[in-house]
């Protein structure tokens, strides 16, 4: 080099041993036994009170709003496709395709927006009931679903209010019953291998 610096000598780097005595499978990069990194003590938390925490009402509400919006967009799009295929308007292919796409864009956002609004109502009502009662259980979700269904259909008259409340309560009961049935069999929604007897 022109500045008088000496080049580092890396010729002896191949002589460094990455295996210590007593271990069979060491990580060649870190020179540690990887079995030390695996701990089956369950979840680890920074603070002890973190084990009792769960997602906040905003996180739960916005994940349900987003997932129901996407499900509504997809279901409404399928509804629009079926409607466009059943009643094609026009004789040429382009006019029929336009009719099909119009059905998708009419029904998809309609169903997606309605489901998202119901999910938003349910989330807000559920958070208010949980705060008011100070307890988090399935009765909160029953009351929230009934109230959200009734509130969603509140402008359509008393019959529609009863139908909306009944549908909301039925869906909450069906979800709760299926969840209890699934969990009583030793299965959780997140595991992939069923352990049914």
TrEMBL record:
GO terms for biological process: protein import into mitochondrial matrix. Its main location: membrane. Pfam families: Tim17. It comes from the Eukaryota. InterPro entries: Tim23-like. It is found in: Membrane. Keywords: Membrane, Transmembrane, Transmembrane helix. Coiled coil: none annotated. One of its GO terms (molecular function) is protein transmembrane transporter activity. PANTHER family: SD19278P, TIM23. This is Mitochondrial import inner membrane translocase subunit Tim23. It comes from Hydra vulgaris. The gene is TIMM23.
